[in-house]
Design goal:
Layout lengths: L2 E6 L6 H17 L3 E6 L4 H8 L3 E4 L10 H9 L8 H8 L1 H10 L7 E5 H6 L6 H8 L3 E5 L9 E3 L5 H9 L4 E6 L3 E9 L2 E2 L3 E5 L18 H5 L4 E4 L6 H18 L4 E9 L5 E7 L9 H8 L4 H15 L15
Parallel strand pairs: 1-2, 1-3
Antiparallel strand pairs: 4-7, 5-6, 5-7, 8-9, 8-10, 8-12, 10-11, 12-13
Helix pairs in contact: 1-12
Length: 336
C-alpha cells in the first residue's frame, strides 16, 4: 500500500467542491488500505509535503492553483508523483481561450468565440468592437470567465443590452472573458480514464436556479447549484444517443484529451446541437470532480468500475508514471 498525500480545499472559489471531492477520495483510499494524509492546500503545503514524504499525491483541488498548473509545478519541483496531467496540460485546459484556440487549430468543432482582457476594454476601446462581435455570433451569447469551472460566472446575453452586465460578471471572476455562440441542445460529458472513453453522461437540469441572465435560453441551466445539489439534475448514463453520435462524441473527447495533453483521467464537456445534430466541444476539465453528483464517477460506474476501483486506478496511473524527471543541463524534462 502507498503513502498518499491527498490535496484538497485550497483558496479558489471552488474550495467547497474540492473539500467534497477530497473527502470522498480520502474515504476510498482508506478503505483500500492506503496510508492517507489529507492536506488543505494553504501556505504550509510545501513544508507539509516535505514532512509527509508521500509515495504519491492525489490532487483533488479544483479551480485556481489546483487545475491551472500551479500545484503541479510545486510537485514537479519536489519530485513527487501526482495524479492528473502535467503542468503544461493543466495550463492549456484551465484557460478556456487557449484551449479553444488549440481546438480550432486542430479542426475540433467548438462554438465560435471572441475573447478579451479587461485591459483591452479599458485601454484599447474593445467595447467599440462589441456590435460587430454580436452580429457575428448572433444572440443569445454566452459570456464566461476564461478560467474556472463549475459554471461560476457564466451569463447569457439575450440582447445587446444584456452584454455589459454579463461582462462585469465575467470580469469579477477573471481578467479575461470569453464571448461564445450559444448552442441550444443537450449537455453531454465524456469522461476519459487511462486514455479510454467511458460511457457518456447527459445532464438534464430539472429547474432553473438563477434569474434570466444566468439561465440558458429555452431550458433550465446546468449551473453551479444544478451540478452539486442532489435532486436538481437528472443524469442519464449511458446517454440515450444513436451509435454514430456516441462514437463521434467519444472520438472528439479523445482527440481533445490528446491535444491538450491529458493524463490519467479527465472530462470533456460537449453540446449536441438540437437543430443541426452537430457536436461541439466546450472544454476539458483536467481534474474532474469526485463528488456524489460528479460525472466521472457516474461514467465509471456505468462501465462497471465502482468508486473505490476508480480511485485506485487513478492512483495506480500516477505511481506508474513515477516521479518527475529532474532538469538536465540541456533543458528541463517536462511532463505533458
Amino acid at each position: 500500500m502507498a503513502r498518499v498525500a491527498l490535496l484538497k480545499g485550497g483558496r479558489s472559489l471552488e474550495r467547497q467542491v474540492s473539500l467534497r471531492s477530497g473527502g470522498r477520495v480520502e474515504d476510498a483510499l482508506e478503505r483500500l488500505g492506503h496510508d492517507v494524509v489529507a492536506l488543505d492546500a494553504d501556505r504550509d503545503l510545501v513544508a507539509r509535503l516535505q514532512e509527509v514524504a508521500p509515495d504519491a499525491c492525489f490532487v483533488a483541488l479544483h479551480g485556481r492553483d489546483g487545475e491551472d498548473g500551479t500545484v503541479q509545478e510545486l510537485l514537479e519541483a519536489l519530485g513527487l508523483p501526482y495524479t492528473g496531467p502535467g503542468v503544461s496540460a493543466c495550463i492549456r485546459s484551465a484557460d478556456k481561450v487557449v484551449a479553444k484556440h488549440a481546438m480550432r487549430d486542430a479542426d475540433i468543432p467548438t462554438p465560435d468565440f471572441y475573447a478579451f482582457t479587461e485591459a483591452a476594454f479599458k485601454q484599447l476601446g474593445a467595447a467599440d468592437a462589441l456590435p460587430a462581435i454580436e452580429e457575428r455570433l448572433a444572440f443569445p451569447i454566452v459570456v464566461k470567465p476564461a478560467s474556472g469551472g463549475s459554471a461560476l460566472g457564466i451569463r447569457f446575453a439575450r440582447a445587446a443590452a444584456d452584454v455589459p452586465a454579463a461582462l462585469v460578471a465575467g470580469f469579477s471572476y477573471d481578467t479575461k472573458v470569453l464571448l461564445e455562440r450559444h448552442v441550444s441542445g443537450r449537455d453531454l460529458a465524456v469522461s476519459i480514464l487511462d486514455a479510454q472513453a467511458l460511457p457518456i453522461v447527459e445532464a438534464i437540469p430539472r429547474e432553473a436556479t438563477g434569474g434570466p441572465s444566468t439561465q440558458a435560453p429555452g431550458k433550465p441551466s446546468y449551473d453551479f447549484e444544478s451540478r452539486y445539489e442532489i435532486g436538481r439534475t437528472d443524469f442519464v448514463c449511458p446517454a440515450e444517443l444513436d451509435a454514430e453520435t456516441t462514437a463521434r462524441a467519444q472520438e472528439l473527447a479523445l482527440r481533445t484529451f490528446d491535444l491538450l495533453g491529458g493524463y490519467g483521467c479527465a472530462r470533456v464537456d460537449l453540446m449536441l446541437d438540437s437543430a443541426r445534430g452537430e457536436l461541439f466541444v466546450l472544454e476539458m476539465n483536467a481534474i474532474p470532480g469526485m463528488t456524489e453528483t460528479s460525472l466521472l464517477p457516474q461514467a465509471a460506474e456505468a462501465a462497471g468500475l465502482g468508486f473505490d476501483a476508480l480511485v485506485e486506478r487513478v492512483l495506480e496511473l500516477a505511481l506508474a508514471r513515477g516521479a518527475p524527471a529532474a532538469p538536465t543541463g540541456g533543458g528541463a524534462t517536462r511532463r505533458p
